[in-house]
Design a protein that fits this description.
Blueprint lengths: L2 H28 L3 E5 L9 E7 L4 E6 L2 E8 L4 E9 L8 H8 L11 E13 L2 E10 L2 E14 L3 H5 L6 E11 L18 E11 L2
Antiparallel strand pairs: 1-4, 1-10, 2-3, 2-10, 4-5, 5-6, 6-7, 7-8, 8-9, 9-10
C-alpha cells in the first residue's frame, strides 16, 4: 500500500475511534463518583447544625440535628456537588421563649420558611480535606450566591465504619461561615438590640452514606 494511503487510512481509523475513546475516558472518570444521602433515623443525632450569635450583652447558640440532603463525591478526582437542608423550626437556643420569638413572623417566620438550604454550583479542591464550595444559599425566602470553606472526609466502607453504625461508604462534611441576617430580610427588633447579632456564624456538620 502506498505510504500516503496508509497514512490516510490510519488517520481515519484514529478519528473514528476518538468518540469511543472519549466516552471510555469519561466513563472511567465518573466511575468513582458516589451518591450519598445524609443519615437520618437512628443516626440523625450525628448531624449538627448550629447558629451562634455573639453581642456585647448576650451570647447564645442554637442547635439542631435535623439536617438532610444528597451529595455526590468522587474521592479520586476530588470533585463533588450536593444539597444540604436544615430544619429551622427545630433549632433550640436553650430558652423556650427565645425559640418562640425566633420562629415568629417577625423573625425567621418558620411557618412560611421552614428550612435553610445550600445547593452547590461548583466545588473546588484546596488541599488535604479542604474544599471551597460555591452555591445558592436560601434563607427566609431570599437566595444569595455564597462561597464557603468545607472540610470533606471520605471513608471507604470497612469494619470500622460498620462498627460505627454506618452502612456503605461514609462522607463527613463540615461547613463554617458567617451571614448577615439583614441580607436575608431578617430585621432585629429594637427590644432585642444588643442581644442578637446581625452577623451570625453557621456551622453545619453532617454524615452521609451510600446505603
Amino acid at each position: 500500500m502506498p505510504t500516503y494511503l496508509f497514512t490516510q487510512t490510519y488517520v481515519v481509523l484514529v478519528m473514528k475511534s476518538l468518540p469511543f475513546a472519549l466516552i471510555l475516558v469519561a466513563g472511567l472518570a465518573n466511575a468513582q463518583a458516589l451518591n450519598f444521602k445524609v443519615v437520618g433515623d437512628k443516626l440523625t443525632y450525628r448531624n449538627v447544625a448550629t447558629v451562634e450569635s455573639n453581642t456585647e450583652f448576650e451570647t447564645f447558640t442554637g442547635r439542631t440535628s435535623n439536617v438532610s440532603g444528597n451529595l455526590v463525591f468522587n474521592p479520586k478526582a476530588k470533585t463533588g456537588s450536593g444539597k444540604i437542608v436544615v430544619d429551622l423550626k427545630s433549632i433550640d437556643t436553650g430558652i423556650a421563649a427565645r425559640n418562640d420569638h425566633m420562629n415568629s413572623e417577625g423573625w425567621l417566620n418558620t411557618a412560611k420558611y421552614p428550612t435553610a438550604t445550600f445547593q452547590t454550583t461548583s466545588v473546588k479542591f484546596v488541599k488535604d480535606d479542604s474544599y471551597r464550595a460555591t452555591g445558592k444559599f436560601t434563607l427566609h425566602g431570599v437566595t444569595k450566591t455564597i462561597t464557603v470553606p468545607v472540610t470533606v472526609k471520605y471513608r471507604a466502607e470497612s469494619a470500622a465504619t460498620k462498627q460505627a453504625g454506618f452502612a456503605g461508604h461514609v462522607l463527613q462534611t463540615v461547613a463554617r461561615f458567617d451571614i448577615k441576617l439583614s441580607d436575608y430580610g431578617i430585621k432585629i427588633p429594637s427590644m432585642a438590640a444588643g442581644k442578637v447579632a446581625n452577623t451570625v456564624q453557621l456551622v453545619v456538620s453532617s454524615y452521609a452514606t451510600t446505603k
